[in-house]
Amino acid sequence: MDIESTVIYEDNHLLAVDKPAGTLVQGDRTGDPCLVDFVREYLRVKYNKPGNVYVGLIHRLDRPVSGVVLLAKTSKALTRMNHQFATHKVKKCYWALVEDRPPTESGTLVHWLKKDPNKNRTSAFGRKRPGTKMSQLEYELIQGRGKKYLLEVFPKTGRSHQIRSQLAALGCPILGDVKYGYKGRATNAIALHARSLEFTHPVKKEPLRIEASLPKNDYWQAFT
After folding, report:
1. What is the DSSP letter of 213?
2. Alpha helices by DSSP H, the chain
3. Which of 32, 62, 116, 177 is catalytic?
4. pTM listed for this prediction
5. N or C: which end of the chain has fewer CB within 10 A?
6. Helix or strand or coil: residue 31?
């Protein structure tokens, strides 16, 4: 993976990349190469750094999801950004393509989610159950073209597979997401894109917005 071509922001404290769908963010039991390792090698070569290069992972995206991933180049930046994410000070915007029009053009979804780690799948319930966590997002229908509907989604909590499971519970599974009810062919990508992050820079204390362009694949072709 050519990290240099995916870097969309970099300073002394932070680095943001536009992650391609299908790329792991962090190493797992598959042993496949991951984004953190690619970034570490990129920094080692670019700055001629000896030894182990520091890369702090602030948040994650699911493997089949594309878009903005923010990493820290210093421990100070990591600690401060972790606090912003934990206290919901970061505004996260996703774009999702669904095959079925949502029942309303905008709305707030509240579910209680429970993840099955063995199946790596999250179930969404309409009321609290043992072992569940409350999950909330807001969505807005941006436009429809053919049989594709573009939703802008703002998650208010940060649960595993939150957007995927909540949109499926709405009756609008994401294109390509066979794990959550899409009936088409499975690929290594789904039509969920982390479009932007807005937050306060951890050191400069200035507002910062980072945006990732839409992927150039069949899902998004009509919207680019």
Report:
1. P
2. 35-46, 75-86, 162-169
3. 62
4. 0.94
5. C
6. coil
